[in-house]
Automatic annotation (TrEMBL):
PANTHER family: CELL DIVISION PROTEIN FTSA (PTHR32432:SF4), CELL DIVISION PROTEIN FTSA-RELATED (PTHR32432). InterPro entries: ATPase_NBD, Cell_div_FtsA, FtsA/MreB, SHS2_FtsA. Residues 10-196 form the SHS2 domain. The gene is ftsA. GO terms for cellular component: cell division site; cytoplasmic side of plasma membrane. It comes from Opacimonas viscosa. It comes from the Bacteria. This is Cell division protein FtsA. The keyword Endoplasmic reticulum does not apply. It is found in: Cell membrane. Cell division protein that is involved in the assembly of the Z ring. May serve as a membrane anchor for the Z ring. Belongs to the FtsA/MreB family.
Length: 409
């Protein structure tokens, strides 16, 4: 069977600590993504969202991408790649340009964003994203779209996300070895937010928390824009490790026990219920109260949520997230996680599953697929922007292309 054209198909690759997820999605006119290919493979050689063994990671990527390509019956031309790790950092910056009473055009907007991002960044760091928050034109503040407005000067506030250049290079080395071209890198929680949030939540203020196996990644939106992002290097693997140690059972069994029987709130578990715990060294399996397992899990989830709460507090945005928290990532699937989070945060909490998808929805209707699906939504949003630029007057497009070549975008 010949491979189909991959013209309007976007590819996403989420190299997680636990699992690699590769997706292919066709951009539909109504803003939805038609999922046409899905590939997953257990991640080997990853730790806390970072690459530990280039060859093992490359092999895992290759397998997930091959599976996705067979599914989609097309070759991945280039992928949007998710990146995370404790080296990811953020900062809010602002810039100003004169507009001298003429109408603000696209070039003015580009220039003011350029001014805002022109802060010294250490050579060992790379800018991943410069996300506009709002503009002000003279005394008119909180302008979402200044296009066509008149004034003397314009200011822009932006949220910048940076990462360690070497850590980004390690991801690229793995994709190179797997012979996959990377279109762009996207911070994983930002990707997640593209697939699970509604516009209302962004406006009201919301925190997206992706709890995976190696890291907790979060972004906070307030008044429609991203204000804070962070990575906390604790997640599901620690919980599995605790279960393995405390119940003296191999890691694989601990993982299976966790996924099948664990609960984040011990009060939600029936005291009478018993489970079988396989032992190490050929010893016989033991019976144990399910409540005892929950007693091990609860403090870990408490720690996870308290670390997230500290991040939100330190960002100063705790009063500005009226829509509460949206949890994504595999560890969000733990029974009792939502109830426990609501208790700790005293805010509404929900599980985030990919929205605006069609096609192979059964495969992506899962919080652990939020990042991969978000990579496609992120790609779609960029495509929309390019198409808007293509409709702009020729001279303006020419100037932007010149700016791109100068490395300003
Ligand atoms: N039902 C469940 N209950 C609790 N935990 C679960 C459940 N299902 C999966 N997990 C956990 O979710 C984690 C995997 O989630 P996910 O696929 O989002 O992680 P990842 O993307 O590979 O890792 P990371 O984003 O941290 O690099 C594992 O730790 C797994 O044990
Ligand atoms: Mg992940």
């Amino acid at each position: 069977m010949s491979k189909v054209e991959s013209g309007n198909i976007i590819f996403g690759l989420d190299v997680g600590t636990h699992q690699i997820k590769a997706l292919a999605g066709e951009v539909l006119a109504d803003g939805f993504i038609n999922i046409v290919g899905v590939g997953t493979h257990p991640a080997k050689g990853m730790d806390k969202g970072g690459v530990n063994d280039l060859n093992l990671v490359a092999q895992s990527i290759q397998k997930a991408v091959n599976e996705m390509e067979v599914f989609a019956n097309c070759k991945a031309s280039s992928v949007n790649l998710a990146i995370t790790g404790r080296h990811v950092q953020c900062q809010n910056e602002s810039g100003m340009v004169p507009i001298n009473h003429h109408e603000v055009d696209q070039d003015d907007i580009d220039n003011v964003i350029h001014a805002a991002r022109s802060v010294p960044i250490p050579a060992e760091r790379r800018i991943l994203h410069v996300l506009p928050q709002e503009y002000s034109v003279d005394v008119q503040e909180r302008v979402k779209n200044p296009m066509g407005m008149s004034g003397v000067r314009m200011e822009a506030n932006v949220h910048m996300i940076t990462c360690a250049d070497d850590m980004a290079k390690n991801y690229i080395k793995c994709t190179d070895r797997a012979e996959i071209k990377v279109e762009q890198m996207v911070f994983s929680a930002l990707a997640s937010s593209y697939s699970v949030l509604t516009d209302d939540e962004r406006e009201l203020g919301v925190c997206v928390v992706d709890i995976g196996a190696g890291t907790i990644d979060l972004v906070i939106y307030a008044e429609g824009a991203i204000r804070h992002s962070a990575v906390i290097p604790v997640a599901g693997n620690q919980i599995t490790g605790d279960i393995a140690k405390i119940f003296r059972t191999p890691i694989n069994n601990a993982e299976a026990l966790k996924v099948k029987y664990a609960c984040a709130l011990k009060d939600m578990v029936n005291q009478e219920q018993t489970i079988q715990v396989p032992s190490v060294g050929g010893r016989e399996a033991r019976n144990m109260a399910r409540h005892t397992l929950a007693e091990v899990i609860e403090p870990r989830y408490q720690e996870i949520f308290e670390l997230v709460r500290d991040q939100i507090r330190s960002s100063g945005l705790d009063e500005q997230i009226a829509a509460g928290l949206v949890l994504t990532g595999g560890s969000a699937k733990m029974e009792g996680a939502v109830e426990f989070a609501e208790e700790i945060f005293q805010m509404p909490v929900r599980i985030g599953k990919p929205l605006q998808v069609k096609g192979l929805t059964d495969y992506v209707n899962d919080p652990s697929m939020a990042v991969a699906t978000g990579l496609l939504q992120y790609g779609r949003a960029e495509l929309d922007e390019t198409q808007t630029i293509q409709k702009m007057p020729e001279e303006s497009v020419f100037k932007r292309i010149k700016a791109w070549f100068k490395g300003e975008f």
